[in-house]
Predict the structure of Putative syntaxin-24.
Amino acid sequence: MADQQRIHPVDVEAPSPSAPLVPRHQLGSDKGDPAEQQHPPVASSIPPPHRRTIPVSHSSPPKRRGRGGCCRCLCWTACLLLLLVVLLAATAGVLYLVFRPRLPKYSVDRLQVSAFAVDAALNVDASFDVTVTATNPNKKVGIYYSDGSRLSVWYDDTRLCAGSFPGFYQGHRNTTVLVVVLTGRTQVGGDLLAALQEQQQTGRVPLVFRGEVPVRVKLGALKLWKVRFLVTCNLVVNSLSVDNKIQIKTSSCKFRLRL
C-alpha cells in the first residue's frame, strides 16, 4: 500500500500591505480618499510645544498730589502758629518776672461845678472842673499818656459834658494830680430834668465819669505798642448847683485795658 501523503493545513500569513507605488493623491477621486473617510483622524498624543507666558504690566493712574500738599501746608502753618504762641507766652512770662507790672490806679477826688444852667428849650449848659489822681505803683514801668483821650460826665445815659486828658509821661512810683475841664451842651427831656431836680433836693445825685486814654507802656528801655486805658467811676454828689459846695459822697472806679 503505497504511502499516502498526508496534507497538513498550513496557515499562510497574509502579505502585509505595502505602500502603493502610485501617490495617493493621484488615485483618489473627487470624493477624497476612502481610507480617510472611513477612519477619523487620530489625535496626536504629542503635547504642543510649551509657550512662554509674557506678563502684561498694567500702568497705574498717576497719583493726585494736590490733597497731600494742602495737608502738609496746613500742618506747617499750624506748627508755626503754635511755635509763635509759645514764644510770645515765654516772652511775656520773662517780662512779667523781670518787671513785675501792676495796674495803675485812678480816682476822682474833687468835682467843682463852674456852670449848670437850663434854658426854656431844656438845653443844659454844663462846665465841670474834675480833679483826677493817677497813681503808677510800678518800680520799673513808666506810662506815656498820649493825645486823643476822651473824658466825659454822664447822668442817666445822658452826657452832660466832655473833655480830654493832657499828654504827659508818668515815671516809676509816681502819683500825678490833674484838673480836667469838661464842658458841654445837651438837650434833655422834661422827665429827666424833673428827676434831676428831685435828686438834688434829697442830696444824692448819681453821676458816671468815663475816660478812654491812649497810652504806651515803657518797660525799662523798651517802649511797647499803644494800648487804651478805660476808666469808669461811679460818683454820688450832693448837688449840681453853682452856689453850693459840691461834695463827693461815694466814689468807686474800675479800670480795664484794651489792646
Observations:
- Helices lie at 24-27, 34-38, 66-99, 190-202.
